[in-house]
Amino acid sequence: MNRALGCSVLLCFLFLTCFNSSVSAQSSPVFACDVARNATLGSFGFCDKKLDIDVRVGDLVKRLTLQEKITFLVNKAGSVSRLGIPQYEWWSEALHGVSYVGPGTHFSSVVPGATSFPQVILTAASFNTSLFQAIGKVVSNEARAMYNVGLAGLTFWSPNINIFRDPRWGRGQETPGEDPLLSSKYASGYVKGLQQSDDIDPNRLKVAACCKHYTAYDLDNWKGVDRYHFNAVVTKQDMDDTFQPPFKSCVIDGNVASVMCSYNQVNGKPTCADPDLLSGVIRGEWKLNGYIVTDCDSIDVYYNNQHYTKTPEEAAAKAILAGLDLNCGTFLGQHTEAAVTAGLVDEAAIDNAISNNFATLMRLGFFDGDPSEQTYGKLGPKDVCTQENQELAREAARQGIVLLKNSAGSLPLSQIAIKNLAVIGPNANVTKTMIGNYEGTPCKYTTPLQGLAAIVPTTYQPGCSNVQCSTAQVDVATAIAASADATILVMGADQSIEAESRDRVDLLLPGQQQLLVTQVAKAAKGPVILVIMSGGGFDISFAKNDDKITSILWVGYPGEAGGAAIADIVFGSYNPSGRLPMTWYPQSYVEKVPMTNMNMRPDASNGYPGRSYRFYTGETVYAFGDGLSYSHVTHHLLDEAPKLVSVPLEENHICYSSNCKSVEAVETTCENLDFNLNLKVKNNGSVSGSHTVFLFSTPPSVHNSPKKHLLAFEKVFLRGKAEELVRFKIDVCKDLSVVDEVGNRKLALGDHVLHVGNLKHFFSTWLRHFEERSGSSGATIGKTMFHARAALWGRLRHARTKTFCTRTTKSNNGDKIESNVSSYNEAYKQLDKLDFMTAAKMLFTQPPKKKQFGIDFHLVQLFFACMPSLAVYLVAQYARYEIRRMEAEQEEKKKQEGKKRQEEDEKAKELELKEEEEKVKSNPVILEVKTRLGKLEETVNEILAESKKQSNQGDAQNKSESSSSIEKEHVGKPMPGLGQRKPIVSQPDQMGKTQNAQPSKDAKK
Q: What does the entry give for GO biological process (predicted)?
């Protein structure tokens, strides 16, 4: 070693020693309003925690000079010692753990590392919104803990939520994938976990997150085109349908504290200088409560690289006037004062920008004095790399790993049966590769080899010196595979293949990796498991179709515990449940699709196949949402979901256009316009595990809508043979809408299909122009027809000078005939004859050859052709009328059946009584009693007759003697005993004596 080299090494050593010592020595956080050191600060309004933040910000801004204000427009904000404000570094990163990328964060002997979770693309593959938020919470705990000892800031520029539009993009690994809904859910979930503003006060932040890179940024460096010069030409439809939803969700649902604009231009304007994108959308439409920051040196880029402005002062002014608050870099610090002097921007605009920055710091407690006395002040080194945090990192990797192939159930492997496991591949024993980019120093590493070796004996051979695999050591690798009970090949990519500023040029495995895999599989004695470690997908059709390769796993970049998670899946201690968050295309895709083409939708005229599962029309290697498990899960629809959803319009709105295939949601009455889809999800296997239930929708073919798109998803845990109820609520106006060609979201009318697994539900959405009111069906029909005629009348009145509508039909001999209506009077007269029931019925029947019901049927046909929305409405009304009629018939039928059952019951009772009587009649005891009672009745009657006879004889003898005296005595008085029966207690005998009557023997009986 020569002297010069020795001196250089010594200087480097001394520098590193001093740097580490300074970092280790720093054990206190940076904060303002330290009243303990300077009591006068307590008199400043911006240090008064009792005041509203807006008041505090206003007090601070008015105390600053213009030069001081400008120092707060850059990431390395200046200090103002007279106000007790220290220097603050805004730039820290926490993409999937606290990162050392960015000058705001350092690791030291105090905190040597932080929990490193899987790269975002793998976490997104879990489709677990609870996991997204849980990871964010752990990361913010560790970030706050590091801030409390002076090793980190409070503003973290994460997450990256750009759409993974093209599989070649090097930064796709940082994103949640290609789907707008999944990306939106990840954005809001991770941000909520980081900021935790929902847990305390929405105006208070644990740390400040930042959603980036706004917008339509997904190309870094491809075939000579880089992000600094790229103009993304994006249609309004694709912008609002694909690229904007994640950012909208991040701001509105996640309440993020910051948004970062990107390097690229969109439709000819730099995003960081576009007032429509910044002030118009982020602040105006979405109501951002926070600050807008540039990607680093973006203003310098659009001045020096894109030549968007003529002077640097103009570039600075355009950024501030567009709505930018903070510049990552030094450009605004260097050129803003000159821009003010030149009159390009006024000081009020600068005040507005730094006010947004100060408000964010105040929400973080930066101006509240000593952090140790605040909510998160007790967090420290003990809260970093805890056992619980590391276990969550392992769990996140397990939930994200995707099983793409499993022939004959080759996985899971048996720990007992495997005596020797061959582990081969350039990624089999890697450490840093598992972390991905924007990494930090992890708590510890567990490589795939280490994870597998902890379970069974292994034999390891890298096969290639690195993932470039320029030369494969095929002979050595095949030799160990031939003698092993099973073989695992860990292949794929690393940051030398895909990374920031490094896009791929193809989708094939690098170098001789495919050769190595194929030869090893051919030589292997036991099952062969291919493990792909990567951010983007690969064309591995060769492995998918190779019977010797029994299983395929995609493990993303699985984080610090990736090796343990892979082993858990391979040996069955964990049931895989990950699903692909992006499409895996064949190599032929990239051969005909340039990365620079931003169009999502296909174009048949030039063979352009479109992008993502929502629009791509070609073949795939693996599709979005693909993934297997060790269980078999089925889905069943529990309740009958609606087949027809009618959408009311405002009363003054008549949709009569021939192209009325959708309506703007603002024109509809969306309140309570929803329905539930209730599903039973059953695990038919014996292995417990989690399962993601996807709800997809295929809308009508309007506005070049997606083939299908994800409406909702839910992850459920299912024990073996168990089932769970999953309920999706469908918001008709929101979930069933599509974006039209000019960027307006509209509710699609017509036939929709909902997909859950192999289950499909078909239903239709139709317009209801006017609310039905209570009353008879006839009244409703009459009102409907009245408004239908009025709508057509209005249409005709505006077409006096031109043909109203033309319809091409065929005559009986097959000739084409063009029918048109140029006279609105004729049309109205014909329409006036058209009664509702006739019109609706005619839609259900074959067209008659002649006039029917006195109406020109071709004109009727023309009416429905030119007025499709009204025709649909009439049919729907007729259908409802028929339903009501059938319901009435069913009700009447039920009444008749009830009456019939009642009659049958009565007959049954009568029959039962008769049977009882017959039983009584046939009883010998009762018959004997009845006989004796009959004889007794005869005897009594004989006695009564004899007594009456004797009484009559006595009366006749005395009548003449007593009649005169009696008459005299009883004149004017009622006769005694008149109308009464004479008692038979005593009778006079023939001797004139009175004797007691003696009953006869029969009477005694």
A: arabinan catabolic process; xylan catabolic process
